[in-house]
Structures are given as structure tokens and as C-alpha cells.
Amino acid sequence: MKILYVTREANPFAASGGLGDVMGALPAAVAAVPGNECEVILPLYNSVKPEVRAKMQLVLDMSFNHAWRNTGASVYKLDNNGVTYYFVENHYYFDRGRLYGEFDDAERFAFFSRAVVEYMLHSGNIPDILHANDWQTAPAIIYLKTQYAHIDALKKVKTVYTIHNIEYQGKFGSHILGDVFGLDSMYRGVVDYDGCINLMKGAIVSSDFITTVSPNYACELEHDFFAFGLSSIIRGARYKMRGVINGIDYNYFSPEKGGDIYASYNNRTYKSGKAKNKAALQAEVGLPQEPSVPLIVMITRFASQKGIDLVLHIMDELLCENVQVIVLGTGEKEYEDAFRAMEWRHPNFKALIKFDRVISKKMYAGADIFLMPSKSEPCGLAQMIACSYGTIPIVRSVGGLYDSIRTYGEEGANGFRFDNYNAHELLFTIKDALELYKTPKKWNELTAAAKKSNFTWENSAKEYISIYNNLI
Ligand code: ADP
Q1: Distance 359 CA to ligand 1 centre (A)
Q2: Residues contacting 6, CB < 8 A, separation 6+
Q3: Could you say which residues of the chain have pLDDT below 70?
Q4: What percent of the chain has pLDDT over 70?
Q5: Helix (H) or strand (E) segment spanning residue 349
Q6: Contact 197, 173 (CB under 8 A)
Q7: Are 416 and 394 in contact, with CB atoms under 8 Å apart?
Q8: Pocket, ligand 1, Cβ cutoff 6 A
Q9: Measuring from atom 13 of ligand 1, which residue has the nearest CA?
Q10: Which of 285, 335, 350, 381 to mutate to test the pocket of ligand 1 (most atoms within 8 A of CB)?
């Protein structure tokens, strides 16, 4: 089975967030299962490092029509981790210094999506499965199922579309259908939704199968609160939809291998290793080195989706307890300011307002408790990373947090969960955890269970393979 993943980003070549991690790991995990051949295609951005660029091999130059333009691209390839990565080069669209967020993103990614379909035709390298992600590559599926549907060579290609976050749908004014997307008005019905072009909606109705990044999020998307206007479309597509939870990279987030943390540790040396990391972290951020005071951390984008309002509401009360708290993040200014102000009021609180992967790993390793009280959470990786370091996550029962964390007292518990989007429910759950922390034997059992949680990509790959197999 040959699978072609279409993506705007992939680690380690170009990444700005979670999708980059997924496209760096999932294809390799699928390709590791005998009988599967995986390829990934993405734009060749000028931010790709020159030494990586130098290793690429030219596959073909092609020209094609897109809307009223005669345009073209070169396609390069590079093997990495058992997967072939193809890069679409077009200097006008992709030499921008950043991956997306440009005024002409609609045009850039419409071009890229068409280039993917044209590449299949020009090269004859036609996959059994085309797997597109997020709105930027949704047009690849839409083109395949509309303008290119009559081409025999492409008829066997089955399509899978993954929604990583339904908030970002690719909505544009209806008037650019022809000029920018190169679609005739006869196809307007495919992408039209709520008075505008909605690329995610177009891919949902056109694709053979849809996935999203956790089973619980897949259910939540049927409800207006979570679906950002697409709930009725999701309900209509329910028959071809499944949630598959993401995994994490255990090589990168590994207390055993150490990496950026102060001292490596394994299951056997957990207690002493944790203590060393905690003491060094307290010293680095300027908190008193108190081994027995529970250290609570939060590492997140400062966005309302992440439940920051709940945290701010109870923080003064929480910091009156015998605890230390460190928050690492960047984002909305009002949140950054609120945390800065909190640091002035409480000597047991530190706010690190920056994006810093190294200190984030030190925090996962040094903390006792990890907070993640999200309002919505398609999958969430941070709670899984916390578990891998034996740090107890406290999460809200939403999206992938519900699927990955079992609450204390339940079978297979690896953390604490609370249900309602209510600040004091969060506070009382933290207090439950602090109570348990006072009984080291029980606490250590829970941290050992958290550390054993299995969030490997192999599990997700198996589910995707079964979806691909069913389709063909
Ligand atoms: P989302 O993708 O919605 O931001 P996830 O939990 O899926 O949330 O992934 C967040 C990832 O980004 C985690 O690996 C987390 O450690 C990392 N992260 C978030 N904020 C920061 C920061 N300020 N510095 C370093 N890493 C961060």
C-alpha cells in the first residue's frame, strides 16, 4: 500500500506546531509496518536549512495551468527515516520567511494543492491513499474529486482528510472561487458554506474518510460548542469518520536519555532523579529549594482555549497553599500581563513569558504536577509528555485529555481529571492531588503508572493502517 501525506509542514524540515510533529512521526510509524510505503509532500520553504536543501535530489520540473495562470514548480526529494519526502519549489509562493500567515495564503496553498495533483500526473507516481491535513491541503482532495475525477489514472486514489483543529477552516470570500482556486461555478456547492468558501467543509464532503486527532474530539465535533459552525456537516459525515489519538516522540521526551534536563532518570532512579531535577529547576527560576513542597507547572500557549481564565481565577487562592507554581508560555497579552502581575504578588510563583523548548523539558522533568485545564483540546500532547516524565497531569475531561488521562481512583489512573469548566472544580482537584502527595507511597504508585502510560506512534499507526486497508 502506498500512502502520500499532503501537508503544509513536517518535522524536521519545516514546522510551526503540532502538525509538524505528526507529519514527522506518523508516516515513519506507518512505513515501519511491512507492506507499506509512505511519502510526504510539502512546500519547499526558504527556511529549510541549506545543508538539508543540498542533499535533495531533483525529481521533475513541471508546468501546469492554475485558474488563469500558467505556472509551474520543481519537485525535489529526500529520504528520511524510511519515508520519502517530496518538496514543491516555487520561489514566488514559498520564499516568504514564514510558513503561513501571509495575506495570500489562499492562493499559496491552492497552488500547492494543485501542484500535488499535477505532480502525481506528471510523475506517474500515484498512491493508493492520499492523506491531506488541515485546510491548507484540503483543496488537493477537492480537486481530485471534482476537476480531475474523470482521469482514469487517478480514479483508484482513495482520500483521507484529517482535522487537527476545527477552529481553522480556511474561509474565504465566494468571489475568489475561480480566480484563486481555479474552480468553475459548477463546483461551488462543494465548497460553499454559510455564505463563503469553506475549504474544510469541501474536504469533509469530498473525502472518502475523515479522521480527527482523538476519539472524544470526534464525538464533540457533532456539537455546536466545539465545531465552530460545522457541526451539521460533521453529523452528516459521521458514517465515514473516526478519531485516532496522536502519539509523542519518546526519543525526544525521555527522562532516561536525558537530553536537555538536569539529570536523567529511569523507573528505578525516579525518586532521586526527580529530586535533582526539581532542586535545579527551583534554583534556575529563583524559587526556594524546598524538596517537599509540591511544584506545579503549566506549559502552554496563552489562549482562552487552554483554560487560562480558570487558572487566573483561582491562582491567588492556590498560592496561599504550601505550593510552588511556574507557568511557561506566550500568547495573548492580557494573559501575559496577568501572570507577570501575579509574580509581584506571590514569592512562590514564577512566570516565564517565552517559548523555550529547553526550559520546558526541565519543567516536565522537575515538576510534581502539570496543569492542563483546557476549554477544548483536540488531542493535546503536553499531558502525554508530562506522563512520560512521571509528572502527574491535572486535566479537564475534554477532547483528547479525556482519552489519554484516567483519573485517580479509576482503573489505570495516570492523573487527575475534572469535568466542568469551573475554576473551583479545578482548585478542588488540585487540592485532591496535594492531599495524595502527602502520602508518598500512594503518590509514587500514581507517578509510576503515569510513566508507564503508552502514547507511542505505533498504536496510532495501526489504527490508520486499518482505515487505509478498509478503504482499498
Ligand atoms: P497545542 O498544539 O494546542 O499548542 P499541545 O499540548 O498539543 O497544544 O502541544 C503543545 C506543545 O508545545 C507541547 O509540546 C508543549 O510542551 C509545547 N509548548 C507550548 N508552549 C511552550 C513554550 N512556551 N515553550 C516551550 N514549549 C511550549
Answers
A1: 12
A2: 40, 41, 42, 113, 116, 130, 131, 132, 133, 137, 140
A3: none
A4: 100
A5: strand 349-352
A6: yes
A7: yes
A8: 17-18, 299-301, 328-330, 355-357, 360, 379-382, 385
A9: 382
A10: 381
